[in-house]
Amino acid sequence: MFCLISFLILSIIGIFSASHRVLAKEAFDCVFRRLTLRPCNTGFQEKMKAKITGQLLPRSVILARLFNKHFELLAWLLFLVTLVSIFWTGKGLFNFYMYGSCNGLNKSGFCALDPTGQNNKVSQAGGSCTVGEGDESKVTLKDVNLSTFPAKNNNEKNTVVFIGCFNCDYTRKAYPIVKKLIEKNKVNFVFAHYPVKGETVYMLPIGYCAYKQDQSKYWQLVDKLFASTKEENGNPDYLNQLLVGLGYSLESIQSCTQSQETKTAVVRQRIELEKTNIYGTPLVFINSKGLVGPKPYRVYDRILDTINIFKNK
Amino acid sequence: MGRLKDQVFNICLMNNKLRSDFPIFSNQGEKLPIYFDSACQSLRPQVVIDSMIDYYQNYPACAGRSMHSFASKVTQKCDESRVTIAKFINARQKEEVVFTRNTTEGINLVANCLDFKPGDIVITSDKEHNSNLIPWQVLVNKKGIIHKIILSLSDNTFDLDEFKKTINSRVKLVSLGFTSNLDGVTIPAKEIIETAHKNGSLVLLDAAQTAPHQKIDVRELDVDFLAFSGHKMLGPSGTGVLYGKYKLLENLEPFMVGGDTVSSSTYTTHEFLAPPEKFEAGLQDYAGIIGLGEAAKYLMKVGFSEIEKKEREINSYLTKELLAIPNLKIIGPENSDKRGGIISFCVDGVDHHQLALILDQSANIMVRSGQHCVHSWFHHHKIKGSVRVSVYFYNTLEEAELFVREIKKVIQVLL
After folding, report:
1. What pLDDT score does A44 carry?
2. Which of B192, B235, B273, B393 fits a disulfide with B310 by CB distance 3.0 to 4.6 angstroms?
3. Could you tell me if B80 and B293 are in contact, meaning their C-beta atoms sit under 8 angstroms apart?
4. pLDDT value at position B125?
């Protein structure tokens, strides 16, 4: 057992240290002999046991004695700990590949592969851009009516719903990734502006009206807003300039925004978004699967692929 | 041991003047090694190292072959070494000294050059180093000789009576370890040689463990052949000597031949040089030979009476302390005076390799563990192996005290 555990550990250390590489070879020889049902006669285990005992002895005779006496038990414990570690490491790697977080889908704990937690960061509603503290497991599209939100490519099998704020760093990071995703795949796309910061609340009725009046221009407007600076987006005059630039009539937009229908629609949209249990942006749904925070492209793409595979079956 | 104690201990050690000749003791900083494996290979004094560096730096050429000044100097230095070695063992003439790579080569030279006939008997003891066992086993198969082994007495000393009973007119050679590397016991060589000679047999002594520790007088012993190594007597590794009586050497046919062994050759014939050259085929290890000469000079300067006194003092202390440890058994006689500088021991229930490794790891104490190239003896006695402590004159009582303290701790851990 000790040979196996030593081989695993020394192989990793051996990548960086030549002296440990030699020991790893010895350990491998021992493991290979065991696997081929031959006795391990290299003395590797005894040598390592004596070496470690010798290092412990100047510190404490009792400790050295305990180690020497319970060496086999300690080796087993170490083996089990290593097995558990390997399992968790594997799981972490799997999760990181699948969901962009070592801890799993929408889990924001520490991840060595994403130490700053970039893939899980969200802008909290009404707050600053920090790691979200909401309940990631509760985000859902169940009973959410998306019919009043801007949408394109209808009648496809799959739907990507992107809920974000124009002035949130993490939404701004996720938008080009999601855009690439919907360009490369045939999907329905729904965009919902969820203003986590006060300075973009004014855009809600304007956005509603802009989409209502000209859908193709609306998507250009969204692109431009995500490409603009946060300061520019906070300025209503700048948005007016963009609208004019895209050929919208400001009078018509203004008239639309003041209508009761628009006001009701905006409130209704807000209510629908709250049903998703959103606690920060970006929140992306691929069909019913919700992903909180800006994930790498591969994560969105893989989920979509998996869904397609199952649907095709 | 605490840091202060360490320092006091080190100061105490360094006060030993002879130790300052050995660079290894000044290279290690606070953690001085305690080297108790001199039976395998001794440490080297600076003079030996310097002499070899001098060769490589100032006259790195061939001896005897060229006419230039470098070659003359190498020839002269190698000749001086041969003279020194001859003096070291009190040989009649320097031509009785053949340079070899080690004791093993010396023994093999005799085994392969003596004209053995089928039925010739070679006698050895039961605790020979493989170097003085395997050559004879090979000759049993190759030439049909008979190999007889004299079993030791219960205290592992040589059974002279049994030897006298065994020897007969068909015994061509008595080949014995002068001092055993297993337990440090020295055989009564003079009596053995007298007996053998009366019988008309030749005697070869494996003096690898004797030459570094005792004065050897080949003339007084009247021994026919004597082999020893440089690396156990402060000399360079890869050096050794075979002493042979000149007349015997003259009559031996060399088994390794080639360059430097002949005075002339034609396409079909050759003329061998006189001993020792005819046994020294090919380019020699000149630096090693020069270093070996320096080592012999150094040992003669220190004096064997001093060396023996120091070793006995340490061995006596160690023997007394070790025998007090329960379950510890010393191989060979309990009387330390009979074991020179060697103490081999086993501890019931303790693996010898583990014990040695832990001593090394925990206290930088270097001892030998295993079967010490005397596998046959261990197999015969059904013992797995032993720990061997071998001391030399550069060791100190303080080191021995520390060793005893440490080994008690290690045994406590392992039992």
Report:
1. 80
2. B393
3. yes
4. 98
Tokens encoding B363: 């206290």
SS (H, E, C) A45-85: HHHHHHHHHHHHCCCCHHHHHHHHHCHHHHHHHHHHHHHHH
Q: Which residues pair with B125 in a beta bridge?
A: B150
8 Å CB contact of A53 and B412:
no
- Give every residue of chain A whose pLDDT is below 70, as ranges: 123-134, 154, 310-313
Same domain, A56 and A204: no
Q: How far apart are CA A275 and CA B319, in angstroms?
A: 88
The answer as to whether A101 is a domain residue is no
Residues A72, A131, single domain; the answer is: no
For an interface test with A, the pick among B350, B358, B407, B414 (most A C-beta atoms closer than 10 Å) comes out as: B358
Residues from chain B contacting residue A68 (CB–CB below 8 Å): 413-414
**Residue B361 Cα, gap to closest chain A Cα (Å):** 5
How large is the ipTM? 0.77
Which top CATH class is B49-301?
Answer: alpha beta
pLDDT at B11: 43
CA-based nearest residue to B212, from B133, B310, B110: B310
Inside any domain, residue A124: yes
Question: Is A158 a member of any domain?
Answer: yes
The answer for residues whose C-beta is within 8 angstroms of residue B181's C-beta and 6 or more apart is B39, B129, B208, B209, B342, B372, B373, B374
Q: Which site among A46, A49, A53 would you substitute to test the B interface, given the most B Cβ atoms closer than 10 Å to its Cβ?
A: A53
Question: What is the rounded CA–CA span in Å between residue A225 and residue A232?
Answer: 9
Indicate which residues of B carry an active-site annotation: 373
Reported as a single tens digit per residue, the pLDDT across A48-61 is 889 899 999 999 99
Q: Domain range for residue A53?
A: 2-88
Consecutive sets of 10 residues in chain B, 415 residues long: mean pLDDT of each? 46 65 80 93 97 98 88 96 98 98 98 97 98 98 98 97 97 98 98 98 98 98 98 98 98 93 94 96 96 98 95 97 96 96 96 95 96 97 97 96 96 93
The count of structural domains within chain A is 2
CATH of region B303-414: 3.90.1150.10
Chains A, B: CB pairs < 8 Å? 47
Smallest CA–CA distance, residue B325 to chain A, in Å, is 17
Tell me what pLDDT residue A112 has. 82
pLDDT in tens, B61-81: 999 878 899 999 999 999 999
- CA-based nearest distance A78→chain B, Å: 21
For residue A298, give the CATH number of its domain: 3.40.30.10
The chain A residue lying nearest B412, using CA atoms, is: A65
Same domain, A131 and A270: yes
Write the CB contacts of B214 (distance below 8 Å, at least 6 apart in sequence).
B179, B186, B304, B308, B340
Nearest by CB: A61 against B1, B353, B413: B413
- Cα separation, A196 vs A128, in Å, equals 9
- Report residue A269 as tokens: 């949209």
